[in-house]
Design brief:
Rossmann fold; alpha/beta; four-stranded parallel β-sheet; 4 helices
Length: 123
């Protein structure tokens, strides 16, 4: 699957943070804007495979939440999704990724980290 990074939203996440609403909002925003979604995270430099397994289990949980509470398990407009997993410090790697991917969109709620249920009004 080829992802068009010139028209993409970046969803930076860490598996130890609560980010179900941000994920759901990112998917809905990508649908609305008709763009791709890049899921970005990092793992420690010397991580084992079990860490990658935890990332994919976290993504399954995020998608399950989205399907249950937003898409209601119905077929609809699909969003192309790409997983990007980098090694090293999260903030440093995210900045490098954004710098090298200049035409992607990082929604303001991703930067501030603040989001509440009422942020979904109108979606």
């Amino acid at each position: 699957m080829k992802i068009n990074v010139k028209n993409s939203i970046v969803f930076p996440y860490q598996i130890h943070h609560e980010n179900r609403l941000k994920y759901a909002y990112s998917v809905e925003l990508a649908k609305e804007m008709d763009v791709d979604l890049i899921l970005f995270t990092t793992i420690p430099k010397h991580a084992r495979e079990v860490m990658e397994d935890r990332i994919f289990l976290h993504l399954l949980a995020l998608n399950g939440y989205y399907q249950t509470y937003f898409a209601h398990w119905k077929k609809g407009k699909q969003v192309k999704i790409k997983n990007v997993i980098r090694h090293g410090d999260f903030q440093e790697q995210l900045e490098k990724f954004i710098w090298k991917t200049p035409n992607c969109y990082l929604p303001p709620f991703q930067i501030t980290g603040q989001m509440k249920h009422h942020d979904f009004a109108g979606l």
